[in-house]
Amino acid sequence: MINGGPVTISPAEAVNSAATGINAQDQIVGTYTDGNLVVHGFLDISGSFSFIDVPQGGRRVPSTSITGLNDQGRITGNYLDNQNRFHGFLFNVNGFSYVDIPGTTDTHVNGINNLNQFVGSYTDTHGSVHSYVCDSNSCRLPLDYPGAASTVFKAINDSGQIVGSYTDTSGALHGLRYSLTGSL
């Protein structure tokens, strides 16, 4: 680790890369594009990269993006299937758990806290984007900014504070904070 300066986080195979999360153990997750323009996820532990690609029917999906991780090493992300639909997932040493909100066309998992509560967004069958928060037992949805055209949750902390954005009816994008109260 370099004190006080930037460090490039990029797998050797990467044409482009982005780090998208870091936990208290300095484990870093992100996404990179290889020379064939295929998007992959990665986990960087002290400069040693592990690659995370969602398997589907014995082959890799067209795109796997990693969005975050918590201090227990649980990773969140999304993948694009062969029908160009997005699905969310949680990943740890035991493998993948897939997240699809029923009755939707796309589901994204964008962040997770140390209580294993995770947040994301989904697109309904009318094309509207909504947000949700889940734990291992239940989900609360839709969670929309009042009067917004769309709402996207990106991260949640251990206090239940959620950040993201919403698009108003004129098309302007705004940041937001949502306070989760009560149990899911």
Structure characterization notes:
The protein is an all-beta fold. The chain has 2 domains: 1-99; 103-184. It is built from no helices and 17 strands. The chain has strands at residues 16-22, 28-33, 39-45, 48-52, 55-56, 59-60, 63-69, 75-80, 86-92, 95-99, 104-112, 118-124, 129-134, 139-143, 150-156, 161-167, 173-179. The strands form 5 sheets. Strands 1-2-3-4 form a 4-stranded antiparallel sheet, with no helix packed on it. Strands 7-8-9-10 form a 4-stranded antiparallel sheet, with no helix packed on it. A 4-stranded antiparallel sheet has the order 11-12-13-14, with no helix packed on it. Strand 1 (16-22) and strand 2 form a beta hairpin. The chain is globular, with a radius of gyration of 17 Å. It starts with 15 loop residues before the first strand and ends in a 5-residue tail after the last strand. 33% of the residues are buried.
- Sheet having the most strands: 4 strands, antiparallel
- Roughly what percent helix? under 10%
Distance between the termini: 38 Å
Question: Compute the gyration radius: what is it?
Answer: 17 Å
The beta-strand count equals 17
Percentage of residues in DSSP E strands: over 45%
Unreliable spans are: none
The number of helical runs is 0
Strand order of the largest sheet: 1-2-3-4
Tell me, what's the shape? Answer: globular
Supply the number of structural domains: 2
pLDDT averaged residue by residue: 92
Please identify the structural class as seen in this structure: mainly beta
Q: What is the N-to-C order of secondary-structure elements (H for helix, E for strand)? A: EEEEEEEEEEEEEEEEE
